[in-house]
Design brief:
2 domains, Antioxidant, Horf6, Chain A, domain 2, alpha+beta, about 25% strand, 3-stranded antiparallel beta sheet
């Protein structure tokens, strides 16, 4: 199953390290950062699980719930969390989904046969409160994710939703944003009374 931006994230019910969840109910009115791992007790995954835990406050400030998935059992996940906490100096509290039979990994197209028939690649899904997929990223199993970028794109998505703007390359909060071409100048003047710069008719920037 190929999932695209704008699709409703598939719902599922599964055992996790924090108990049985139904995914859509668990998300509730928040955003979700859903990310997969090839297996427990692997080095790159351990650092990523630790980094997500270390950033718990950053995710919470954005109204985002992290949730991991690995193709192992809850029992194995619980043992692995002990290693994550010990080696990464953290206290991991977010749920890790058990997916030993690969059902959810296949549902979310996390199994790439040319990479592995039995292990999930490093997929990222940013899902909004309407349960829509807003961003996807896929890394090979050997490459750890950039969590600065994950937080940056969440900021960009949420800022865009709030102000109806787009963000330029390498944007970070506090920098100028772009007024979409679909907004005419009259509406832009109403929406952005602070004024905006017209670099080209199709490229207008504004400071929020």
């Amino acid at each position: 199953m190929t999932l695209r931006i704008g699709d409703i994230a598939p719902d599922f019910t599964a055992e996790t390290t924090t108990g049985l969840i139904t995914f859509h109910d668990w998300i509730g009115d928040d955003w979700a950062f859903f990310f997969s791992h090839p297996a427990d007790f692997t080095p790159v995954c351990t650092t990523e699980m630790g980094r997500t835990s270390q950033l718990a406050e950053q995710f919470a400030q954005r109204g985002v719930k992290p949730i991991g998935l690995s193709t192992d059992t809850v029992k194995e996940h619980v043992k692995w969390i002990e290693d994550v906490n010990d080696t990464q100096n953290t206290d991991l509290r977010f749920p890790i989904v058990a997916d030993a039979d690969l059902t959810i990994a296949k549902q979310y197209d996390m199994i790439h046969p040319s990479e592995s028939e039995t292990a999930a690649v490093r997929s990222v899904f940013i899902i909004d409160p309407d349960k829509k997929i807003r961003l996807t990223m896929t890394y090979p199993m050997s490459v750890g994710r950039n969590f600065d970028e994950i937080l940056r794109v969440i900021d960009a998505l949420q800022t865009g939703d709030t102000h109806k703007i787009a963000t330029p390359a390498d944007w970070v909060p506090g920098q100028d944003v772009i007024i979409p071409p679909s907004v005419n100048d009259a509406d832009a003047k109403s929406s952005f009374p602070q004024g905006f710069e017209t670099i080209r008719p199709y490229l207008r920037t504004v400071k929020l």
